[in-house]
Amino acid sequence: MSGYNFAYLDESTKRMIRRAILKAVAIPGHQVPFGSREMPLPYGWGTGGIQVTAAILGPADVLKVIDQGSDDTTNAVSIRAFFRRTAGIATTESTAEASIIQTRHRIPERALREDQILVYQVPIPEPLGRLEPRIAETRRMHAMADYGLMHVKLYEDIARHGHIATSYSYPVMVNGRYLMSPSPIPAFDNPKMDRMPALQLFGAGREKRIYAVPPYTSVKSLDFDDHPFRPIRAPHACELCGSRDTYLDEVLTDDVGGRIFVCSDTDFCAERQAMKEAAE
Amino acid sequence: MNAPLLTARDLTLRFGRIAALDGVDLEIHPGEVVAIVGESGSGKTTLLRVLSGLMRPDGGEVSYLGQDVLGMSEAARRRLMRTEWGFVHQNPRDGLRMAVSAGGNIGERLMATGARHYGNIREQASHWLTRVEIDPARMDEVPAKFSGGMQQRLQIARTLVTLPKLVFMDEPTGGLDVSVQARLLDLIRALVADLGLAVLIVTHDIAAARLLAHRMLVMRHGVVVESGLTDRVLDDPQHPYTQLLVSSVLAA
């Protein structure tokens, strides 16, 4: 597309973002400030993720974008189209074929590889923000690894609900040092982050923060000895592919209470359906 | 006599033209309760903030068990603050997390120092609620639902749960009515004796000081004008300002 630099952002902006990414990779889980740019989509639609993707994209990359696990929702379709037009790169809906996967609120069910990068769109990077409103104070808490407050939140969950009721954006410790918000992925996906072979990058556009988890880094969900972390999923099988170990969406089918559970990861579900059909 | 817990030498601090602290020396030994009395603006609270490392003086030194408090890193000071030290604020809202349940408030210091067993934290919280005379059945209520006196007692429980060696108290009975004050003072006195705490208490209430403190410092315009055993200072005041202060206490 003429009139635009490759992948929309100009080269010096990309360099600035890459420097932030390098720093973030060097200090796993630490939030690095960066000069977030205005993007041609509103805050909350993935401005952070899209800038990280633009900064790391090369002409040979194959991009997959998912929104809540789905390849065919507005956000995913628009961001794929955006990079097809501004970078002329190939896009895909297949997790296995992608070299970069930009995601909102899910980690693909298929295990990722060393040659892949997962880019998360992050609305609220600060895990302590709800508990301590002063940003200067939360930064000090990160600097001193003073994280007792996060356990107070989990304590309150158990005291009120009898179990840890945080089901998404479940706080994790990265490399035994930094407390990190995994972005609003379901707690079900948290274990996938631990020692993942792929590089994980997190971009928050409005909050102007980038953070990262390098390949094979330990990521542990916070919990109590007598209330261990449990990944939660709906206790059903996928209506379409029959999977019993994937994260499910509940879909209403009519206005008289009809509902089905289907895989939230559309690519994984479609693959399994195809395999089932081939077997029959 | 054993070595002092906290020692301050020649503390000075000026706010513009006003001397908030002017050559203040102080020592507090393990298990000792020291009261700092004086009128509003005499530098009592400033002294407490400087001693606890919340504020830097212009000159002088503070040492805690041989460690230089003013020179230590913020990380080390915060560690002291959540383990061996405690701070009880005048307004319980400053010391409590109002949106967190009573149990969570008490558990915070435990969790900050590495407690990771929910059941044990609950047990400790319940034990401490009982000690400060709050019904453990109210453990899951937020402090906003408690009366002022209960909030203050909860703040004390939350501070003492890690069994600190030294507790700073800034007007702990301020803003409470007289009968509640009396109960709170009684409670503080019992806990201090039980746990062998050293307490540095700032108050303008001479009667509270007499009830709690072993020793007493009288401050005026940033200067310690008189110090000594509480009964000696109150029964035989030497400095004219102390005489004025003692004679202006209303007898009921």
TrEMBL record, chain A:
<keyword id="KW-0456">Lyase</keyword>
<protein>
    <recommendedName>
        <fullName>Alpha-D-ribose 1-methylphosphonate 5-phosphate C-P lyase</fullName>
        <ecNumber>4.7.1.1</ecNumber>
    </recommendedName>
</protein>
<keyword id="KW-0949">S-adenosyl-L-methionine</keyword>
<comment type="similarity">
    <text>Belongs to the PhnJ family.</text>
</comment>
<comment type="function">
    <text>Catalyzes the breakage of the C-P bond in alpha-D-ribose 1-methylphosphonate 5-phosphate (PRPn) forming alpha-D-ribose.</text>
</comment>
<keyword id="KW-0479">Metal-binding</keyword>
<dbReference type="Pfam" id="PF06007">
    <property type="entry name" value="PhnJ"/>
</dbReference>
<keyword id="KW-0411">Iron-sulfur</keyword>
<keyword id="KW-0408">Iron</keyword>
<dbReference type="InterPro" id="IPR010306">
    <property type="entry name" value="PhnJ"/>
</dbReference>
<keyword id="KW-0004">4Fe-4S</keyword>
Automatic annotation (TrEMBL), chain B:
<protein>
    <submittedName>
        <fullName>Phosphonate C-P lyase system protein PhnK</fullName>
    </submittedName>
</protein>
<dbReference type="Pfam" id="PF00005">
    <property type="entry name" value="ABC_tran"/>
</dbReference>
<dbReference type="InterPro" id="IPR012700">
    <property type="entry name" value="PhnK"/>
</dbReference>
<keyword id="KW-0067">ATP-binding</keyword>
<dbReference type="GO" id="GO:0016829">
    <property type="term" value="F:lyase activity"/>
</dbReference>
<keyword id="KW-0456">Lyase</keyword>
<dbReference type="InterPro" id="IPR003439">
    <property type="entry name" value="ABC_transporter-like_ATP-bd"/>
</dbReference>
<dbReference type="InterPro" id="IPR017871">
    <property type="entry name" value="ABC_transporter-like_CS"/>
</dbReference>
<dbReference type="InterPro" id="IPR003593">
    <property type="entry name" value="AAA+_ATPase"/>
</dbReference>
<keyword id="KW-0547">Nucleotide-binding</keyword>
<feature type="domain" description="ABC transporter">
    <location>
        <begin position="6"/>
        <end position="246"/>
    </location>
</feature>
